[in-house]
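Problem statement: downstream parser choked on a complex file, so we are re-checking the raw output for the nicotinamide-adenine-dinucleotide run. The parser issue turned out to be on our end (a line-ending mismatch), but while we're here, posting the original submission so the record is complete.
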Amino acid sequence: MSKSIKVAVTGAAGQIGYALLFRIAAGEMFGKDTEVHLHLLELEAALPALSGVVMELQDCAFPLLKSVVVTSDANVAFKDIDWALLVGSFPRKAGMERAELLKINGKIFIAQGKALDANAKPTCKVLVVGNPCNTNAFIAKAQAKRIPAKNFFAMTMLDQNRAVTQVAIKAGAAIEDVKKLAIWGNHSATMYPDYFNAEVGGRPLTQVIKDEAWLQKDFLEVIQQRGAAIIKARGLSSAASAANAAIDTVKNLIVPTKPGQWFSVAVCSDGSYGIEKGLMFSYPIVSDGQDWKIISGLTHGAFSQEKIALTQKELLSERDAVKELL
Ligand code: NAD
Ligand code: LMR
């Protein structure tokens, strides 16, 4: 076993942390050939609870889990790490939009961006899960100049997984037959699952699902409001599916993408498709296992253009709202 990885998980005693850590330690994120060193960051007050999670990690006797650091100091947590999974932050309650969390969560990403800059490997990759994840990633990226902007990501894979399942159900198709269904823009109620460029069983999605009213309205609304629907039903936000999407995201980035496929993650815009440079915008992405690129050359009709413009507008207003923090 020659490969080994140091991965920091913030908010490790939280709901998503509990659904995520055991899967990372089992090798589901970085592969069964990679030893894992976990660096767990929590608020001081949550360290007692986190010690119980660490006991459970020990009690699983995971062969790949080589060490666990537990701390409330971001400088310790981010020391020499290869990956940072920034989960720790406050979830919204029923009736709130994710952007309303910016006031309480935004400053977390200032401090953590600085700590990443000072301590992480310069090759470190950073996946932001904590909401509003696009703008939190934008904030962290602005603080960590030593780490390339290309290494910052915000999670929209949960939205893609939700969209794929809804399409599979409607089309009576298998999950794996739904491809190229990317989320564009913000992980928010303006996100746009671009069904026009998607495929079901090798055919354009719009030729398989001809119910245009469902696609334009019901489908979009279900995906855009799924997080809120889960909070309403559970009284808590999604956790197991969010952890699963974090695993999918990292795997998508570190394993070469299969030919004829792409996946969703928010990356630092290079201006592709007319999106303002520097915004953390979700695009269809492919990876060669080391580096990633945005799929180019897709076309968008008037409906898609309008939706993409709307989600960009929201991200620009979130960026403006945090300007004084940066
Ligand atoms: P949770 O409240 O169960 O856990 C969050 C944990 O973070 C808590 O244990 C808290 O002590 C810790 N924390 C808070 N501030 C911290 C800091 N500065 N440093 C370290 N730890 C800190 O919440 P959760 O359900 O695990 O959700 C976490 C975040 O993920 C929320 O913002 C939620 O909205 C978001 N989320 C995003 C997606 C997505 O698709 N991007 C999906 C689900 C949830
Ligand atoms: C989700 O999409 O489930 C998360 O972003 C949590 C939320 O607040 O909706």
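For whoever reads this later: The mean pLDDT is 97.
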